[in-house]
Specification:
273 residues; alpha/beta; TIM Barrel; eight-stranded parallel beta sheet; two-stranded antiparallel ribbon; 10 helices; 40% helix; globular; isomerase activity; IolE/XylAMocC-like; carbohydrate metabolism
């Protein structure tokens, strides 16, 4: 298995400012330097990086700059993270327009995978129809990704329509998209991450490894929180998945490079056993 790291830690997740007024521009974004992120990720030995669609969009008119950043560091763009609110029929064409752009950029920069998170919850409450709409929307995402030679996977996430294990179980039969387990978000949503991986071994197309503690709630480098990573890694191996493990940390009070190094050391020791 190859190890990669997500660039979110260099600035945290924000939204593209144009997205305030135009759904089609509502890219995910981190305000940190992608040059710094890639250099730091490479310097501690990771082979790949995952970026937000909005950070890629910033290089759309200057692609050689990002290719130089990746090439100089010797790191490949493994995956691109995007998302949408799939349950509102009127805005779905603009949501899919943005995902189409994300997939196009991902392919142009050599990525293999498109990771899709989220899905809105209605103020009035989530309906069963919402899961049908989400499933249909994710099938359309899969079609878009495949048209660019990418593999698509869905990422359950806190505060979205799929955060609990019951909600994931509702969705999975309604779509053919792959599954990207995020260990901390699954656990924070009430699941045992290893058990979920064992439940859907044939659907796994991508993996986010992240640690956390419940009280006070915070995300942490691998091995510093509450999750049973020996069992999680065992479940991943049992599934037959033998590809990228992407370490992710949504935020960190200290140096993001330090956090990346802590996780790398822990994960290498775990994988060597």
């Amino acid at each position: 298995m190859k190890l990669g790291y997500c660039s979110i830690t260099w600035g945290g997740v924000v939204g593209h400012p144009q997205g305030v007024t135009s759904v089609k521009d509502l890219f995910y974004l981190t305000h940190g330097s992608m040059r710094d992120a890639v250099q730091d990720i490479a310097s501690v030995g990771y082979q790949g990086v995952e970026m937000f669609d909005g950070n890629l969009a910033e290089y759309a008119e200057k692609p050689e700059e990002l290719k130089e950043i990746l090439g100089t560091a010797g790191v490949e763009l493994t995956s691109v993270y995007t998302g949408a609110n799939f349950i509102y029929a009127d805005i779905l064409p603009d949501e899919l327009h943005r995902i189409h752009r994300a997939a196009e950029l991902a392919a142009n920069f050599g990525a293999e995978r498109l990771v899709v998170g989220g899905g809105a919850r209605r103020a009035a409450g989530t309906t069963e129809e919402d899961y049908r709409r989400l499933g249909e929307g994710l099938d359309k995402v899969t079609d878009i990704a495949e048209s660019f030679g990418l593999t698509a996977s869905y990422h359950p996430h806190l505060s979205t329509i799929v955060e609990s294990p019951d909600e994931l179980d509702k969705l999975m039969p309604l779509t053919r998209i792959g599954f990207c387990p995020d260990t901390a978000h699954l656990a924070a949503g009430g699941a045992d991450p290893a058990a979920v991986i064992r439940k859907y071994p044939d659907r796994i197309r991508h993996v986010h490894l992240k640690d956390f503690q419940q009280a006070p709630f915070t995300f942490l480098p691998l091995g510093q929180g509450e999750l049973d990573f020996p069992d999680i890694i065992a479940a991943i191996r049992e599934s037959g998945y033998d590809s990228w493990l992407m370490v992710e940390l949504d935020n960190y009070d200290g140096d993001p490079r330090e956090a990346a190094a802590i996780s790398k050391k822990y994960l290498e020791e775990l994988l060597s056993n």
